[in-house]
Amino acid sequence: MHLFEVKTGSRECLVDITSRVQQAVAASGVASGVCTVYVPHTTAGVTINENADPDVCRDLLAFLGELVPRSWRFLHGEGNSDAHVKASLLGASAQIPVEGGRLTLGTWQGIFFAEFDGPRTRRVQVSMVRS
Ligand code: ZN
């Protein structure tokens, strides 16, 4: 298992971690298998989406903000309940097939760390299963 840190600069942001995940895949030496990207946090997640037009990320964050208003009648008293809900909506892991030692991402796909309660220093775990 490979671990790296992500320093997020604002309360909510999407950080493109594709190249760091690819580095972890290369370091594993696994040519063919499945890569799991896992985020061990309750107010952050991981998602795969377009990395060409940055407006896609802006739209995703704006839409989630309307879907999960911070002012909703949450019971959890930390003031970050919206972040917990958004983290569950996106999920804590993503799986990407690996062939020839490379992630088999589509042309426009990137892997994003999703911060919902930053800024913080976060961790991402990358593990491989050989096939
Ligand atoms: Zn909380």
Number of strands: 8
CATH names the topology as: Jelly Rolls
State the order of secondary-structure elements, H for helix, E for strand: EEHEEHHEEEE
Heteromolecules bound: zinc ion
Q: Which strand order spans the largest sheet, edge to edge or round the barrel?
A: 1-8-3-5-6
Tally of distinct domains: 1
Percent helix:
25-40%
Helical run tally: 3
Main sheet attributes: strand count, strand direction, barrel closure: 5 strands, antiparallel
Q: In CATH, what is the homologous superfamily?
A: YjbQ-like
Give the low-pLDDT segments.
Answer: none
- Summed over residues and divided by their number, the pLDDT gives a mean of 98
Computed Rg:
15 Å
What percent of residues are in strands? 35-45%
What shape does the CA trace take? Answer: elongated
CATH class designation: Mainly Beta
Note the gap between the termini.
16 Å
Fold and architecture overview:
By secondary structure, the protein is an alpha+beta fold. It has one domain (2-130): YjbQ-like (Jelly Rolls). 27% of the residues lie in helices and 37% in strands. It contains three helices and eight strands, in the order E-E-H-E-E-H-H-E-E-E-E. It has helices at residues 18-28, 54-67, 81-90; strands at 2-7, 13-16, 33-38, 44-50, 93-99, 102-103, 109-115, 121-130. The strands form two sheets. It has a five-stranded antiparallel beta sheet, covered by helices on one side. Strands 2-7-4 form a three-stranded antiparallel beta sheet, sandwiched between helices. A hairpin with a 2-residue loop joins strand 5 (93-99) and strand 6. The protein starts with a strand and ends with a strand. The mean pLDDT is 98.
